[in-house]
Amino acid sequence: MLSLLWFATGIVPAFPVPTWPHGNKDIQSTLASIEERLKDLVANEKYGTTSFSVQLTSNTESLWTQFHTARKFNESRPGDRHVDGDSVYRIASISKLFTTLGLLYQHDAGNVSLDDPISKYIPKLSGDLPWDDITLRILASQLSGIPRETVQSDIINLVEDPTAFGLPPVSRDGLPTCDEYSGFERPCNWTDILDALSKFQPIFAPNQKSTYSNAAFELIGLVLEKVSGEKYEDYIQHAIFDPLGMKSSTFKTPSDKHAVIPSGETYWGINEGSQNPTGGIYSTASDMTKFVRYIMTHFNTLATGVNWLMPASPSGGIYNFYGMPFEIFRTDKLLEDSARPVTFVTKGGGLPAYSSKVIVMPEYGLGLTVLVGGEADLLDEIIEIVTVDLLRAVEKIIWKEVEEVYSGVYTAIDPSLNSTLVLSASPSTGLIINSWISNSTVVYSDSATKKDNPIMNILTGSTESDEDEDQEPPVRLQLSPTLLYKNESAQQGQIWMLTASYARDGKQRKVWDDDCTADVDSGGAYAGISITKGVFWLEDEVLELPGWRVKTKRTGSKGGKSPAFFKQDL
Q: pTM for this structure?
């Protein structure tokens, strides 16, 4: 356990988003080790009928692939005997991402508003659900409060004799006649879906609490049909599949040539009809990697006012959130040398014999696609191995780069100024200021408290009385990137913000000690210019402090280190 934990660490970015050139030796050695672990994993007889396709990508290119073909095939329909990146799986609920992206496109085009009620576009909606209060945004964010399913997961279809499990005898009169109610012989149409929804009661009031709903995305699919004038499947094809070059992605059952069809009961070939918007897509790891890369590079520019990777509501666990409709997981258990939480923005999917997940790791500039055909447990085991081993190794690579690119002694370029900063970096501290002299005045030292310099009151945002200051732990000054540039077009002049935090000594804390919003901008300014903003001009090894009216240059650096590792070229 770390002896010191710091408030600001992990709430704001710790480093600029790195680039990952293909063939990076440090990362390749870790990936080779992961490959061996995966081989050992699937050697288990439990996974003899299971295949998988895994691909890792940076913001710009695929970095690594790993595939496994089941040792035992489906005897009647063996499908693809050599699984690779072009092997086709059902991706189930990952289809919701495509439906939501289509909705964002329509919102950006002005054809819909995310804050319009669903009843505006589907006036035929009826029953006890509060349709006028359920907006498109609420539907896409799993906050509608409507039931999970319309025509699936009914026990009457799943067991031969429900009364044997203590349920009373019931009639099938009035039940749907499509999808599982028809033995999957007839897919549901929109009339079936709307009729089923008219009989439901709400789980929650709209926007009260998140709960997963497949039905919500069926409705969004119908909205897309109405505003685009096309069938939902055709719209997704020309709006998303075609522009992204996803040539193997489809709603129609592909040929068996590249199909992953595990032994036993599968969902291959079942037409989901009007449930396609919630789970009907067939795709490949190669296609999904293109899609993940598109998300990574466009998530904040798809529609005005929308950051697609942001959470919309907390979920049941303290580490989990729903997005629109991402499933977001934050954990502080992953990193070995830091208590900083790591965020995984994910979307999973599951159908009989198919399990899948896409994962965006925004702070690392990495994305992962995992498609599994066969035993569902393999999905979680692959994800645990790949993400934990990979990110622990990546952290070491990144902090070595941060140390070489940013750490050092910075002295004023103007020789008439006695101004010096000493910066260092490590996984446990982030990029910090060890000492700081400005105009011959000590602004900060690593044992500084607020009473050492009144400016610390501004940096910490504190209003505590002087009586408390003797009891205060030392203040730490940490630099956090904003991911913005002073010259955006040339991506030069990285803008960082100075945040102040207090040490935690590992002692038992009060409950409310964890209440920390960790604002990046303390509001401190001098003559109208922020005193907490710094600009790194990496090519010249210069750190500019606009509020302090000084430019400093790194001296005694190791030299020759290119800053390109932290420069995106998208």
A: 0.92
